[in-house]
Amino acid sequence: QVQLVESGGGLVQAGGSLRLSCAASPSIYRLDVMGWYRQAPGKQREMVATISIGGNTNYLDSVKGRFTISRDNGRSTVFLQMNSLKPEDTAVYYCNAVLVALKRYDFWGQGTQVTVSS
Q: 65-97 pLDDT, tens per residue?
C-alpha cells in the first residue's frame, strides 16, 4: 500500500503562486506515473498534470504555461508549481500515483485546498 501526503495548499490572490508537494510512503516503489488532479464544487475531478518516471508530462490545456510539474524519483515526490493563479483554479487538489505491476494500481492523497481570490 502506498500513502500519499500532500502539502502546500492555501489561499492566494489572483496572479499569485503556490507550490504543492506530494510525498509517497514508503518510497521504495517504482511509481510509473505521478500527477495532480483537482475537483471544484459541483464539478467532476479533472487531470491537471501528470509526469512519468521518465519525465514525460501532460497538462490540462487551461494550465499550460502557468503550472509546472516535476518529480524527484529518489524520494518518490511530485511537485506542482502554480503561477499566475486564477479564481477558476480554486479546487481541492489531489495527488495521484500509478504503479503498474501485472495490473494497474492507483493511489490517492487526501487532497489539499487551493483557493484563489479575485
A: 999 999 997 878 999 999 999 999 999 999 999
Contact between 58 and 76 (Cβ < 8 Å): no
Give the whole-angstrom CA distance, residue 30 versus residue 16. 33
CA distance 63 to 71: 18
Share of the chain above pLDDT 90, in %: 86
Where residue 87 falls (left for φ over 0; alpha for ψ -120 to 50; beta otherwise) is alpha
Of 36, 34, 68, the closest CA to residue 52 belongs to 34
The 10 Å Cβ neighbour count of residue 17 is 11
> Which amino acid is located at 21 in the chain?
S
Within 13 A of 12's CA, how many CA atoms are on the CB side? 21
Contact 14, 90 (CB under 8 A): no
User: Hey, which residues does 57 pair with through a beta bridge?
Assistant: 51
Q: Which three cell numbers stand for residue 52?
A: 512519468
